[in-house]
Structure formats: C-alpha cells, structure tokens
Amino acid sequence: MKKQILLASLASALALTGISLHATSTTEGAVSPIRDEPILPIKPAANINLGMVELGKKLFFDPRLSKSGFISCNSCHNLSMGGSDNLPTSIGDRWQQGPINSPTVLNSSLNIAQFWDGRAADLKEQAGGPIANPMEMAFSHTLTIEVLETIPAYVREFRQVFGKNKIDIDQVTAAIAEFEKTLVTPNSRFDQWLLGKEDAITQEEKEGYALFKDSGCTACHYGEAVGGTSFQKMGLIEPYKTDNPAEGRSAVTGKDADRFNFKVPTLRNVELTYPYFHDGAAKTLAEANDIMGRLQLGKKFTPEENAKIVAFLKTLTGDQPMILMPILPPSSDKTPRPNPFGK
Fold first, then answer.
1. Domain total for the chain?
2. In which element (H, E) is residue 213 found?
3. What is residue 129's three-state secondary structure?
4. b (16+ CB within 10 A) / e for 66-81
5. For helices 141-148 and 169-181, what crossing angle results, to 10°?
6. Of 92, 153, 174, 302, whose CB has the highest number of CB atoms within 10 Å?
C-alpha cells in the first residue's frame, strides 16, 4: 500500500511538470515480463529530482543557449517528432549542414554511451557538446553562463535547485540530463504483449517478431531500448557505401579496428525517427530493414517478410512524454538579443 501511495504521489508531482508517469512498474520500479524474450519492457522514469527536471526542461527548450539565440536542444531533438528532427543530418548555426544524423533523445538514458561514436559517457557529458560545437549551437560554456546570469529568474531557480550562489556549466548539463532521464516511452503495444496481453499485437506483427529473432537481429537489438547497448561495424557481410565522412568509434579510440563501428541505435519509436542510419540515407523502415538484412546478416528478405518485420517494429512505439511546454524566464536588459543571421 505504501508503495502504491508513493507511486501515486510521484505521478502527481511529475504531472505538475508536464511529465507523465506510466503505471507499468511493479515493486521497486521493476518491470516483470511474463514472456522470456530478448526484448524487455521499458520501465518508467525513477529516482528523479523534480526541481532539476523542471529547470532542465526550460534549458532544453531555451534557444538563448545558442550563439544565434534561435537553436535549442529541441531543434534537433524535437519532442513532437520522436525526439529527432526527421532530417538526414541536422541544421546548425547559420544554416550549416551537420555531419551526422541526429539520434533520438527518447530513451537515451538507456544507451551505453551518447553520440553515434560514443564519445560522451552519459547524458550529462553529452549535454555540453552541442552548445560549444561551432556547427551546432556555436556558443561556448563561458558565454552560456554569462547569458544565464543576466536572467534573474534563472539565477533564482539555479540557487533553489543547487543551493549555490554561482551558476556553472556543470549545473546546466546536470539539469538538462535530469530532464532527459524522464523521456522514456513505456507501454508500447509490444511491451503490453510482453506483459501478457495476447491481443496487443496482431498475428502479422508476431510473425514479424519471429522473423526478427530468427534472422539474428536480436544479437544487437535487445534489452529495454532494443539497441543502444553495444558498438557494431556497419557492413559486416557487405561494405556500406556512403559519402558521409563519419568514421565511427575509431574517431574516439584511434584504433583502425573500430573504423565504421557505430553505436547500435535504439529501435524504440523507430517509426517516428526516420530517416535511418548515421548518415540518414535510408528514408523508410522497409528500406532500412532491407539494407540491414543484406549488409549485417547476409539475408535477403522477401517483400512479405520485410512487411512483417516492419509491422513488428511499429509495435515498439510507446507512450510519448506528455510535455507541458515551459514558459521561459524573460531576458533582462543585459541579456544579448537574438542574432540568427550573424550581422
């Protein structure tokens, strides 16, 4: 009874910040699947600091963390579009074309590391990267703090949340990461099936899942996120041909053996996060599935098999985070005004 009251209280508190807590958990936040499968149900967000979440949500949506005053975290990780931007590569400062596809922020807390090449160990480390990247938000950590310190409401909120009189980039990235931890998508139809609801998925979708397993896809796409837990070479059986210059994990490790090794992407909400692959070259799920079958597994799926696997993949779309859009604190007279054209 106490645990039920605690969950209800947490759900009420999260609702005030615009975050939905889905009641699919059992004791201690665990999810107990009835079926023994390589894919596990997603657990709701747990152990969340609500003050940090609310502050991080504002920062996630605030374009004043960019040089132009126009680009925010949500620009490339749009929470209305599956946590991505549905572009092959993202648009950065002064309309620069980004070098790589923007991975979804949804369920990103389940990843082994962040970015396609895993150069950030966790969400906190990742949050600071785009701010200072000249091709993305094109700002600096120092300038970010200077801007935030000109906004009285932010100064007060940082002091309330962190108990310090001085804002620093560590607080900024910690708050954004705490908000991103809440962006999980439980209660997909497939999760419902895992938990015992037999009619949650159709016969075609069940056959697609069987093909997905029997073909070897679950060697890389498993667990809660159905991916995100390892780095694998793109093009095991056949080489992957692309004009994209990204070299994958070797850019981090310096090892030639890691060249073209990328973090296995999550397949959660995959019907929402097109186009696919690190270069965004595959426009549809059917195209992506065909390429992965040939290049990674040495298997040519028939159109019927492909359609069944795609049908299964669409069952992985979960409940999207219900975000109450934050009202950002107003700038003061000292806050730099937007300058999106750099004049």
1. 1
2. helix 203-214
3. helix
4. bbbbebbbbbbbbbeb
5. 90
6. 92
Q: Are 275 and 86 in contact (CB under 8 A)?
A: yes
Nearest 10 degrees: Cα torsion 39, 40, 46, 47:
-80
Computed on alpha carbons and rounded to an integer, the radius of gyration of the chain in Å comes to 21
List the alpha helices (DSSP H) in 163-321.
169-181, 189-194, 203-214, 250-253, 285-292, 303-314
The rounded distance, in Å, linking the Cα atoms of 80 and 77 is: 9
Residue 108 has φ and ψ, to the nearest 5°, of: -65, -20
Other CB atoms closer than 10 Å to residue 214's CB: what's the count?
10
Host domain of residue 185: 1-343
Contact 329, 59 (CB under 8 A): no
CA distance 246 to 64: 29
In the residue annotation, 136 being an active-site residue is answered as: yes
Question: For every one of its 343 residues, what pLDDT tens digit does the chain have, with 9 covering 90 and above?
Answer: 433 333 333 343 344 334 433 333 333 455 678 899 999 999 999 999 999 999 999 999 999 999 999 999 999 999 999 999 999 999 999 999 999 999 999 999 999 999 999 999 999 999 999 999 999 999 999 999 999 999 999 999 999 999 999 999 999 999 999 999 999 999 999 999 999 999 999 999 999 999 999 999 999 999 999 999 999 999 999 999 999 999 999 999 999 999 999 999 999 999 999 999 999 999 999 999 999 999 999 999 999 999 999 999 999 999 999 999 999 999 999 999 998 887 6
CATH, residue 45: 1.10.760.10
Using alpha carbons, list the distances in angstroms from residue 320 to 20, 243, 300. Answer: 9, 33, 33
Rounded Cα distance between 112 and 264, Å, is 10
d(CA 273, CA 227): 14
